[in-house]
Structure formats: C-alpha cells, structure tokens
Amino acid sequence: MDRLGWTGNFTADGTGSVDRRGRQFSDSEVYKLIEAMAWELGRRPDPTLATELDELTEAVAAAQSPDGYVNTAFGRPGQPGRYTDLASGHELYCTGHLLQAAVARARTGDGGRLLDVARRAADHVCDTFGPDGTPGLCGHPEIETALVELARLTGQRRYLDQAALFVARRGHRSLPPHAFGWSYYSDDIPVRAADVLRGHAVRALYLASGAVDVAVETGDDELLAAVAAQFDRTLARRTYLTGGMGSRHTDEAFGDDFVLPADRAYSETCAGIAAIMLAWRLLLATGESRYGDVIERILFNVVATAISDDGRSFFYANTLHQRTPTRPVPDDEEQLGFGGGPRAPWYEVSCCLPNIARLLASLGTYLATVGDDGLRLHQYADAEIGTRLADGRRVGLAVRTRYPDDGLVLVRITETGAGPWSVTLRVPDWADGATLVVGGERRAVAPGAVEVRREYAVGDEIRLELPVRPRFTVPDPRIDAVRGCVAVERGPVVYCAEATRPGAADTDPDATTTDGGDLDTIRIDPAVVPVDVADGVEVRARFDVPDGARWPYRPPAATSAGPGSVPVRLVPYHRWGRRGPATMRVWLPTT
Amino acid sequence: MDRLGWTGNFTADGTGSVDRRGRQFSDSEVYKLIEAMAWELGRRPDPTLATELDELTEAVAAAQSPDGYVNTAFGRPGQPGRYTDLASGHELYCTGHLLQAAVARARTGDGGRLLDVARRAADHVCDTFGPDGTPGLCGHPEIETALVELARLTGQRRYLDQAALFVARRGHRSLPPHAFGWSYYSDDIPVRAADVLRGHAVRALYLASGAVDVAVETGDDELLAAVAAQFDRTLARRTYLTGGMGSRHTDEAFGDDFVLPADRAYSETCAGIAAIMLAWRLLLATGESRYGDVIERILFNVVATAISDDGRSFFYANTLHQRTPTRPVPDDEEQLGFGGGPRAPWYEVSCCLPNIARLLASLGTYLATVGDDGLRLHQYADAEIGTRLADGRRVGLAVRTRYPDDGLVLVRITETGAGPWSVTLRVPDWADGATLVVGGERRAVAPGAVEVRREYAVGDEIRLELPVRPRFTVPDPRIDAVRGCVAVERGPVVYCAEATRPGAADTDPDATTTDGGDLDTIRIDPAVVPVDVADGVEVRARFDVPDGARWPYRPPAATSAGPGSVPVRLVPYHRWGRRGPATMRVWLPTT
C-alpha cells in the first residue's frame, strides 16, 4: 500500500492538494490494514508493528479536517465535494472501516489516538446525517455495524441511533437508480421487509450485520427475526456448498434462488468474510450453534481456499469448477492490476487482502463465548481459554485437537471455582454419530449444542469424537447447475478432483486410464463410498470418451417410463413471454 | 433516435461544437438504421422513406470533414482528438457501419451521395491506417467486413488490402491490456492461429466475418480454413441449442467450452445476427448447406425470440431459463435506459434494435444463391425467385410452404431455358426421414444438400417433405448446466415450458397438479414422446414437491454400482491450485 501510494494519500502538500492514487475506496484498505495490525498486536507484543501502526495513525490524524471529516478522495482542492457521490463514492464506507480499526485497537489495549480520530469522524457523520441533517445513505453499507461497535465501546448512544437511522433509511429507493437495479445496494426493499439477501453480496451481508447489531442493541426483535429469516433463506437457496455466496460476476451479486453455477461461481472472498461477520452476530444474538457451522464451513472452504500457502497471493473469486488450466502466479509487478493466475498477487480492487488479514489476526476471538453460567466452544482448535463467569468465578480450559484432520476434540479443565458450571460444545450439522465421553461415561450426541454441566475439578476431561470421514453429498434438485452430481466432504471440508497436467486427473499412477482423465468427462461411481488414503480421499470413477460431434445436442437414448405424470403444453421458445409476466425454461429435467 | 439526439449529433453549430448525446458508438446505430431503410427501399418503393433516408444522408454528409473523416464523438472542439482511443472509442467500428449502409443503398439502387460519403470515409481510413500510416486497430471489429464489401461494390483493391491489413494486425496484443484480457477484443491470438471464437461474442463474430471476406477475395484458403475450423469448434462447444452465442454477462463473451448455463445465458441478439453474417459468408465460401442450418436455427430461435409481436420491444440478452417472473414492458419513457421487462422498449446501448431492422429488411437476400449451373435454396419461405445462370439462361421458380409449421415445401419452375440445370435444396440436419418427390418419383433424402438436375419445363414441381414433428433432444454430457435434461424441438424450432401465473406451469386445466406446477420442480417423462396439440407440443411431466431444508446439500440415496472404474484421488478443496497450473471441479457427475 505504501508502494501503490494508498497510504501516501493521507499526506497532503502545503496547498492541501494531493496526487491521489488508487480507487475512491483505497482509504478503506488502509483502515482494514490498521485493523489487522491492531488485532495482531493483541495476539503478541511487537514493537516494530506498534511503531508502524502509530505512524499510520498519525498520517490519518493529520489528514483529518478540524471538523472531524476524513477522506482522501473528496473535499480537497481539485476533488469532488464531500458527500457529492454517496451512491458510489464509498465515503461513509471508508469511515466505517476507520471506526472498526479504532475499535480493534482499543480492544487490544490502546484507546487513545486512533479512537479519538474515529470518534471525531463518527461525530461528523452524526452531525451531517443525523435526524436534523441530510437524509443520506452510503451506496456501500459498512458504517452501520461500525457505528454500533463504536457505541458499544464508548457507550455513546448517539452512534447507535445513527446506525439505526441508516438501517431504517435503506430500502426506500432514495439512492439513484442503478444499472443493476436498486437491489444492487439493498435499497429496493426496507431491511425489515425483505425475505432474502440479494444484490451485491458484500453490500447485502455488511448491511445485514449492521442491522443485527442495531437490533440487538435496541431490543428490536422484529428486525432481528427479519434478518435471521433472510439469512436462513439465503443459506437454503443462495449459498454454495463451500459456504461461498454470490453467483454472478456481472454485479458481484447473489443470483436468484438455486442459481449456483459451479464454473461461474463468484463467491467473493470478501463475501465469505462478510457472511462470517453476519453468522457470528446471529450466533451471539440467538445462541444457536448452527451459525457456528456456517462460520466453520466458510473458514475451511472459502477463506482457507482464497489464500496461498505463502500468503502472497489470493483468490478474489472462488470458483467451484475450473475448466481450463489456471495460469501461474505472475511474479512481475506489471501484472499486479490484472489478477489471473490460480491466485493473484494483487488486484486494483484489493478489498479481499486486508479483509483476510483482519479476519485471520482476530480468528481467536471466534472460538468461544462466555455466558452467565458457562463457556461455549464454537470452533475447534488448540487453545487456552480463561474467563470469568457472571458470578465472578474464574474458569479456564485447554483444547487439544487435530480437527478437522481427525474428529477427536479434547477439552481439559484448567481452572475452576466451587459449584457447577457448563461447558457447551458445538456438534456440527454433518456430524451424525458423534460421541461424547465425560467422566468415563460415553454417550451419543446429536448435531447441535451439547451442554456438559457439572462441578468440575482441574484436570477433568471432556472428549468429543466427531465422525470425520469422507462422504458423498448431493445437491437440492432445484440447483440446475450441478444436477446429477455428487460432491465429497470430510468433516467440514469440501473436496475436489484436480488435474495438474493437461487433461490428466489425479488418478492412481498404477491404474490405466483410457483417455487421459479429462475432468470434464469424469463419472463417479456413487455406489463405492469414498475412503481416506494417504494424500486425500479416493473415489471410483470412469472417464467417458467424448465423440467429435459437430453439434452438442442430439436425440436421446431410450429410457423407461415414470408414473404420476400430468400433461404439460409447450410453446415455441420464441413465443415465450408474450402472454404477460412469465417464468420459462427450455431445458426440462427428466424423471 | 431523433428524440434521443443521436441523429442530431451530426449537426454541429456555427462554432463546430455540438451538445453530443448518447454513447460514443451512437453514430453506428444511425448508420444501421440507414442500412435498414436502404434494404427496405429495395423491397418496395416508398417516397416518404426515401426522403427520410436522403435527409439522414445529407446530415451525415454535412458532418463529414473535408478530408473524409466523419465521427460525431471525436475531433470537434471539446472532444477527444481523432483516433485517441482506438481500443474503446468505436471510431472505425462506426465507419464500418457507414460503409455497410452505403453498400446496401447502392445495392438497392442508389450509388450516389451516401456511397460518395462512404468512399471518402474509407479513403481516409486507408490514408490513416494503411501500410504507410499508423499501425492502428479498432477495439471493436466491423470495419474489416465493411471495407471488403465496399471493395466488391467499387472494385477498389485498396479497400480490400486495408481490410486484409486490419485482419493481419489483430491478435498481437497491440491494443492496450483489457481488464477482461486481450481475448475480449480477439487481440490475444492472430486470426489464422486461433482454434475457437472467444472473448466478446459480437466482436469475435464480426472479425471472423471480415476474415472470411478477406480470405475469399484474396484467395487465402489457409485463413478461410482457420476461421471455418474456429466456427466449427464454436458450434460444437460454445453454442446454445437456440444457436445463441455468448454465455457470460460480465464481458458479453463466449465462455469456456461447454459452459452454457441456461439461466445465465447471455446470447445477445446482436451476436445471433453476427453469427448469421458469419455463417452466410461461410456458406457462400464453401457451398456447405450446413451453414444454412445454423442460419435457420438462429433466425427461428434467437432473432424471432428477441422481438415482440408489435416490434416495439426486444430482448438484448436471450436467456434459456427465466426463474422469476418477468416484468411487464414499461410504457413510460423514464424506463428507457434500464431495459428489464420480458422485452424492453429501449436500452441506452441499443445496438440490437437497428441490427434486427437491417437483418429483417434484408432477409430475402438469404433465401437462395445462384451458381454456375443452377439455383440453391437455403431457407424456406414463400418466394418468387428469378435469376440468370452463368450461361445466360434466365430461370425462375416459386416456393410455397407453411414451413416450419409443417414440413411441406413446394417448388414450381416458373421460367427455364433449354437444357438441364439444377435446383438444390437444403435438407436440414435434424430432418432424418425427409422425402423428395420429383416428377412423380418419391425418394428418401438425407440431411445435407440434395441436387435435382434435369431439363425443366415451366410448371414442373419439386416437393420436399420434411419430418416436422416434436422430438426430444439431449445435451452433450460435458454441458454441466443442463445435465439430466431434455429439450423439445420441432423442425428447427426450440420449444419451452412457460408459466404465466406465478408457480403455475401451462398444464392441462382438466388435470390435477399437486403443487401448482413450479417450473423449477418440473420433471419430464422422457419415455412419452412429445406430440402436437392445438396450441403447441405436449409432454408428460410430474412436479416434485421440494422440502423445506435449511441447507440445500445432503447425503445421497443409495444407487447401484457401475463397472470399469479407476481410482481417483481427491484433495481438499482449499488445496486446489497449489501444485501448479490445474483444472478442478468440486461437483463430480455420477455414472
């Protein structure tokens, strides 16, 4: 960001003008970087990192106007005026990320300079867009959740009220018409009236996160229920097996229900992170462990997929089917703007990179929560967790596991007071046949939350055995794109076949394939269950040799009759849509 | 176009400046409109239309600079300089459409004013971009085919050479890098080195048309064979059942091989028209009747689909699956810019409308060709056709048919000289079981071209009986998007199911459906062949009632084993692409 000039944007020259670099929203990338650095400092002291963070903080502070406004793309000489392009200028979006960075820094020990900058920026937002100000709205939600977080941290009701106002304002088509429709920025339907997430996926998920924050802090159960129902429907109809969201490249958007093409999956990394944000807020709001399942699925199949082993390249979009061989990661900087590769070192729009950074740096905060009377474990990883219960007792436990490589999770009590308390564990939705062993007693546990309440002693052990083994999964028959397919999962992890040489699937080198193993001709035998092998999971397949037909559509082979049918009349394709509003399909799935 | 100011753009004020309206390429729409008017005048005299055409011609002539340059978006006061944005400015593209309009006008009887404007514009292009000029290239092909057509009309070799130069220049990445890659404007691979059409579909198809023109006129058989092979592969792997091309909205582009989603089909109307242009040129170049099949398929399933019955609204993109009910055609002009509807009255980018107009106005020119020794019929419609054979004999015939409603085509000789000559008829690729009756003699004919050579007398009749009846068609198994589906065709016409009330497919009103007939739950019984009924074609289907699952992926039901498989190893999805260039899929089709 230094090299690209994005951090330098905060430094104006003597005349107040700046040779600005990057897109309008590049400030937000700097703020997300600061947030990541703040979380990282919370994990371990690092004087060098702390100095860098302080320097960035001073640069931001220096760019802040006396009235609290701070944005490097608007309001300076030669730039458009403040808030002259709310629909696409990303000003409030950037401010939101500034607030989140300051909250992160305060939560990791420094509630000073950056928090002061953020409060003044937030005050300026409230002054400008409050009940007595302009009834404006940012084209990209983000400010809503940030204001609530700042309200939580500072106790300032004003920020919460402003967030609630932004949420209430959305959905009334007050933003200008967008070529992709008002749904693009969720301004088509009021938040509490919608029934599913739609439009630009990151926008929709950030807005929903802010709405849950507002609902929880204001006791607005109706709003909470509305957003929870929207997310339920989104999970049931608009989510990839990986937990990825967004099936349209054109507008980076959710598709219609069940439009989930594997090969054209957008599944933006940022949308995955935004869905984790939403699921986490719903988990905290409702206590339902199934939201932990969603977080786990996205962590293992979107976030973990997006980044390269060396952390130097990433996927912006996460396809579920790659038909042509990917290109190598480019190593020259001229290609920075173009992405490509299997993973790309940079994009001109590099929102995903600092988003990954801030998520990974704060990952520890997603493992567990404390309630009035116990601890709840939501994700499984080696961890030492200590906290104080509502009654003041200090409790602690250690988690040891190789999950998800295997399904054994060991929880050992490391600190406890007198009297009973609870340890609650999440049994994932896929874990049919899980077992819990407590005090030598073994019992089957069903997916959901399992509470172990007792008078603990230090050294007591809870042993959760999850049935991590390969399994086939089939899609809802309404997902046209993957009809007639199976996927393989193992615990929370989605598997794939890969061919690393042109036209050669990763088959057993001792076996004979007749056609080189083109992945687009692979046919899995679903009767042979997948099994663990040394480097992955093994299934049985054959490869259909394609013919060289000139036209890829042909008469069918004979098939058998099915019962219970009713007559359906068809019309010529070119006749469709002439008799009024209609749904339509050319391809008709068979019985 | 008058109301939007696109025609007015040609009129500058006293200072030479103009308050210009529309996109950079709006000149081309005016030229396509002129071309359509010219073809229409060729069909029938119309003084009012002729006057309008003359007025438009004068406006264009008035806007032409003394050196021949004409474009309303560049080169005037306050506008960017000429040819300062070849990649996206569409200047040569617009000039190409001017040339095509002038050629059409000359071919329909007026080789005067407009042709003069076009020749001077073409001369300016040759002066600027010729062997001694700038080695430039337009981001949107079109000038190539237009220059060859002008060369054919005028006999000026210079125009042909310039077209050949433009074709040879393309594919060397001389245009600036594009966010969608150089393939977006077919500048990634030299025309004669490519093996398939790719990138922006209209660009690719216009370029290929120009390349065929160049190849034919220069005797460049290698170039012709290369483009023919590219089109073959495009037809076999990148074309919808409708003949539509382009499966990506994002870049209006061809997808990878077999990426042909029905619900996200782009299948732009202009791409269909461009494919007709290419197929027609290949038909003329090779004589192969199968290109007539392609034209027929696109005419009946793309072009005929695109336009409304009243000719006042149209599809820009032609989806093959509409999941949510379409909206009514808006009748207020405020919605002009946004499209929508089942068909839209206007788009800001309205390239398709005048393209449809010029195609429909010239449709008669696609019916037949004359060779050295006979007539060939390529499309079947009522027609009177008269021409002169190479030896000077005048011949003529009349066609009477209700095709494609039924398959009977009657050809009657209306004029003939002494000695034998040929009438050659196209038997479409789908027409297994066609019959020909000549002189009372009946014989089976196979798909392809059937030549009837004899000494004709006026009144002789040729009777072609094509087996027009409903049939099922299945897709290549590599088209993931429609696996497990059938389509219904009848002759060259693709059918679809339609539900004109929410959730209610067009089922027999006397029959009982249990769930309202949601088209996304329709399951066709492929064992019951479709049959003709009064208003269309009838198939048998049932409707699966979906369950209310929270997550649309689940364990499979038991299935039976398949033989001949080899082991395939899978890796976790988040591991893919880490071992070098790879292909990949998550969903694995079953045996």
TrEMBL record, chains A, B:
Residue ranges occupied by any Non-reducing end beta-L-arabinofuranosidase-like GH127 C-terminal domain in the UniProt entry: 470-589
Non-reducing end beta-L-arabinofuranosidase-like GH127 catalytic domain mapped to chain residues: 16-364
GO biological process: carbohydrate metabolic process
Domain of life: Bacteria
InterPro entries recorded: 6-hairpin_glycosidase_sf, Beta-AFase-like, Beta-AFase-like_GH127_C, Beta-AFase-like_GH127_cat, Beta-AFase-like_GH127_middle
One Pfam match: Beta-AFase-like_GH127_cat
The name this protein goes by in its record: Glycoside hydrolase family 127 protein
Annotated organism of origin: Polymorphospora rubra
